Predict the structure.
Amino acid sequence: MKNHLVYFVCIVLIFASSYGCGKKSEDQAEKKNETKTDNAGEIKKEIDPVQENMTKKVENGTGVPQSDANKTNELGMTPGLPKDFPSDVPLPKNSKTLGSLNSSDGTVVTFESNDKVLDIVNFYKEELQKNGYTVTKEGESQVSDKGGLINWTKEKKEVGLMLGFDKDKNITSLVITYR
């Protein structure tokens, strides 16, 4: 039950971050890049020095600027895939990694995918079974086209998959936990 609570909190945080973060920063960036006319009548475009500096940074291969690779966002998530992500757990197809969070209960990695919930569930059922995982006693919890929760074990490893479909954005949010 404790794991279910952790999963639920993670999904809530994912949805809160995706709904609350984008528009405000986009509006601020637009305002900072507006054109202005100086005293001589010349039009000059104002550029935000922080934004200009960010575009000059070298990326480290993960799509994250090198100086930001080890930083966390406002939710405490580290961008990208963790180095210790299990090699026997496949990454979701047609997805992007949003970030990860480590806790005493394990590691949580969040993704967004263009695939439907049931397609992702079927993919993981097949792949994890091939890799020696079995569904736990709790098994599947209310898996439908809107979302669900599945837990697997392999020897002493535990892997959980939690999904939720956002019909407005037409994307599926995934949270993979492992320990």
